[in-house]
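Exercise 7. Given the encoded structure of a 266-residue chain, write a plausible sequence.
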């Protein structure tokens, strides 16, 4: 299968390039970067920092390369992801989207597009984080209604969105386990909020240095607390999942698939 990688200079795009180039089931046919970058026209292997050419060029106009591809892997920005989505719709190509921070309206555009093209949307493409969702469901069902739930996430200083896409998904898992709507129980910041309401979910975002990704969900009771934590030491676990998702999409019918479909997590 032929793939295009968006943002090959980025943290995720460069790792996805490295991992995809070592797989035997996929071939990178192009990269896409923003207009005006000095690396446009160069080989993606050089742009991504791999130090060897892969015989695929980074372009700034997806229209010029999209027809050579089967799947586009996109971990970039919300604005650029919307452009990729429109291009993929026009050319009927599959998309793996791992970008986070979409508005509700933008996410509805992804859902609409998935009626015509196959899409994997994954706010977190690590297998282990998706296993953590299962642990959260068990904990929330058992003690969620009687605990003070806090989601504490840490990322690098450059991350654009807060709270992280993963922490929103974690909140959603917990809200579903409690038969509640996340919007009714999520609390962003505690200033002026008064006493803690059991069963509500407090969100806390830390941005510092080069922390790659860390999520802790704390279920606080009187005299004890349970913490479930995932730490990523680098972004490779997410990039592995991105390539798995691309392989999964090859030949799939239109639809909105999740990383659980890809990784076969019940
Ligand atoms: N789903 C998951 O598991 C994960 C999701 N993410 C999400 O992925 C996204 C990217 O994260 P990260 O790699 O850390 O970010 P980076 O800032 O490192 O990379 C973003 C890339 O997008 C490129 N880009 C920006 N605008 C355009 C455009 N108009 N056209 C083409 N390329 C563009 C940038 O180009 P340039 O380098 O030239 O500026 C850059 O290479 C974020 O939303 C993040 O939250 C991150 C990790 C895991
Ligand atoms: O920007 C990141 O780094 C990450 N973003 C995703 C998110 O917003 O949850 C996934 C992971 O935490 C890394």
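Solution.
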């Amino acid at each position: 299968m032929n793939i295009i990688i968006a943002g090959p200079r980025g943290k995720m795009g460069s790792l996805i390039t490295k991992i995809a180039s070592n797989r035997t089931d996929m071939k990178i046919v192009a990269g896409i970067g923003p207009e005006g970058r000095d690396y446009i026209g160069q080989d993606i292997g050089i742009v991504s920092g791999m130090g060897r050419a892969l015989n695929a060029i980074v372009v700034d106009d997806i229209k010029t390369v999209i027809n050579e591809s089967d799947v586009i892997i996109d971990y970039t920005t919300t604005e650029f992801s919307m452009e990729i989505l429109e291009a993929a719709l026009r050319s009927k190509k599959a998309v793996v989207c791992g970008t986070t921070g979409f508005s509700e309206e933008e996410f509805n555009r992804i859902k609409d597009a998935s009626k015509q093209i196959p899409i994997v949307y994954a706010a977190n493409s690590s297998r282990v984080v998706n296993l953590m969702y299962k642990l959260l469901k068990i904990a929330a069902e058992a003690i969620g209604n009687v605990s003070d739930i806090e989601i504490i996430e840490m990322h690098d200083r450059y991350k654009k969105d807060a709270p992280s896409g993963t922490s929103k998904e974690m909140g959603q898992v917990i809200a579903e386990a409690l038969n509640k709507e996340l919007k009714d129980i999520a609390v962003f910041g505690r200033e002026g909020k008064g006493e803690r309401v059991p069963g509500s979910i407090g969100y806390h975002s830390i941005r510092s240095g080069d922390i790659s990704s860390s999520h802790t969900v704390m279920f606080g009771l009187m005299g004890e607390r349970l913490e479930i934590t995932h730490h990523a030491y680098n972004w490779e676990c997410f990039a592995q999942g991105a390539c798995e998702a691309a392989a999964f999409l090859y030949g799939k019918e239109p639809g909105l698939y999740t990383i659980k479909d890809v990784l076969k997590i019940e």
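Remark. The longest helix spans residues 127-143. Students should compare their own answers with the one above.
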